[in-house]
Write a structure and sequence with these properties.
Elements (H helix, E strand, L loop, with lengths): L1 H47 L6 E5 L12 H25 L3 E5 L17 E3 L2 E3 L5 E3 H12 L11 H17 L5 H7 L10 H8 L2
Parallel strand pairs: 1-2
Antiparallel strand pairs: 3-4, 4-5
GO molecular function: DNA binding
Organism: Scytonema hofmannii PCC 7110
Pfam families: Cas12f1-like_TNB
């Protein structure tokens, strides 16, 4: 009985120690990440407003940072801090230069072809491949979409993702008409991601209703 208790206690102690060490490691990494990100954001924000009066458009980000080396809780914590720090830094330097910042709906900004304004094409890491095979730098493509989104009369900041998708699918359908194609053709050709076929907007457009 006594030996079983000792064995149980040692296993429990090892488990607690491992948990505490893991937490300490994550906290240390979190602080390191904070410092590196704060420095990067500070330099980027200052550089952005160096030219003086600007009108800046930024994504209203809601998606968590994905990092396999961190727990989900730590990723959410860091993501929340990053968004707050980035917003504060932008506002600080915008105020200093008498510039303005407007946030836009983030939905699909990285999935739209900035040349055509449609959902044709696909992002793979740092590259965005257009429907015609031309490859764009993905972040630059997304940045151009954010700039356009800031002046978009149909897509507003607080629109739901499904509503943004519907607008973009309508635009995509109109663009395809010029090529004698439709949304279903685009999916079959590999130009349009098949995930869009599940949306009510897609079904409505292909049925003509």
């Amino acid at each position: 009985m006594s030996q079983n208790l000792k064995k149980h206690d040692s296993v429990k102690a090892a488990r607690i120690l491992e948990r505490n060490l893991t937490r300490k490691t994550e906290n240390k990494r979190y602080r390191q990440d904070q410092g590196a990100i704060a420095s990067l954001i500070g330099r980027a924000s200052k550089s952005l407003f160096r030219e003086g009066l600007l009108k800046v458009y930024a994504e209203d980000l809601t998606e968590p940072i994905r990092n396999k080396r961190q727990s989900k809780a730590m990723s959410r914590k860091l993501n929340s801090w990053v968004k707050g720090y980035l917003r504060d830094s932008l506002e600080k330097w915008a105020s200093w230069s008498n510039s303005t910042i407007s946030e836009v709906a983030a939905s699909y900004t990285s999935q739209v072809d900035s040349v055509t304004g449609t959902l044709l094409g696909k992002r793979h890491g740092d590259c965005f491949t257009r429907f015609n095979g031309v490859v764009l730098q993905a972040d630059l493509n997304a940045a151009k979409n954010i700039l356009v989104r800031g002046q978009d009369k149909e897509i507003h900041r607080y629109m739901k993702a499904a509503e943004v998708q519907a607008v973009l699918l309508r635009r995509t359908a109109r663009f395809l008409q010029g090529y004698g194609q439709n949304l279903r053709d685009a999916v079959e050709l590999g130009w349009l991601d098949s995930k869009h076929t599940k949306s009510p907007a897609f079904k409505s457009l292909v049925s003509g209703s």
